[in-house]
Amino acid sequence: MTLDKLRAEILNEWDSISAAEICVQILEYFENLPPKELNFLTFRTLRTAANRDSIDDELLFAINILSNSNPPLLELHTLFIDENDEEFEIDPKEIGEAKKTGIFIHPDTGEPVNDYENYIIPFFSPTKRLIAELK
Questions:
Q1: H-helix segments, the chain
Q2: Measured between alpha carbons, how far is 114 from 96 in angstroms, rounded to an integer?
Q3: Three-state secondary structure call for residue 75
Q4: CB atoms near residue 7 (< 10 Å)
Q5: How far apart are CA 58 and CA 36, in angstroms?
Q6: pLDDT tens for the chain, residues 1 to 135
Q7: How far, rounded to the nearest angstrom, does the alpha carbon of residue 124 sit from its chain's CA centroid?
Q8: Do the Cβ atoms of 10 and 70 come closer than 8 Å?
Q9: Taking a C-beta distance cutoff of 8 angstroms, is the pair 74, 130 a contact?
Q10: What residues form DSSP beta bridges with 81?
Q11: How deeply is 102 buried, as exposed, middle or buried, from its count of CB atoms within 10 A (0-12, 13-18, 19+)?
Q12: Predicted pLDDT of residue 70
């Protein structure tokens, strides 16, 4: 399968959805990125890739398509940066649990973190499937 086939697959499956075109724009942007830059794709990066002025509902829908397609093309990660600028990659499920309970435990100190949402950065990376298609 080539990236052209991925494009066609997305446009075919999401035929009447405008977010499909945004997915294609994002994939085209990825083709021109150095491989190292693909490993830390923030919402801002994806907004730039989609040539959007803001992170709007259509962009979020496109990201959802790319990260939840079968098989997915993007994988969600979360980074916790504490008050000492120490970085910890956190399983997104832990963040989901923290949202439910309102408590996030610092991965190093074991202490609860107040306003933990201010220290969490979601980011994406390409899945093995997408990496193979970009080669």
A1: 3-13, 19-31, 43-49, 57-68, 92-101, 128-134
A2: 16
A3: strand
A4: 16
A5: 27
A6: 468 888 899 999 988 899 999 999 999 999 888 888 999 999 999 999 999 999 999 999 999 999 998 889 999 999 999 999 999 999 989 999 999 999 999 999 999 999 999 999 999 999 999 998 887
A7: 3
A8: no
A9: yes
A10: 87
A11: exposed
A12: 86
pLDDT of 3: 84
Q: What's the confidence (pLDDT) of residue 59?
A: 97
Q: Pull the structure tokens for residue 52.
A: 């959007």
Q: What pLDDT is attached to residue 121?
A: 94
Contacts (Cβ under 8 Å, ≥6 apart) of 36: none
Which residues neighbour 10 within 8 Å (Cβ) at sequence distance 6 or greater?
20, 23, 24, 27, 65, 69
Q: Taking the model in full, what pTM does it have?
A: 0.88
Instruction: Give residue for tokens 């959805």.
Output: 17
Please answer whether residues 67 and 27 qualify as being in contact, where contact means their C-beta atoms are separated by less than 8 angstroms: no
Element (H, E) at 125: strand 120-126
Q: Rounded to whole angstroms, how far apart are CA atoms 27 and 21? A: 10
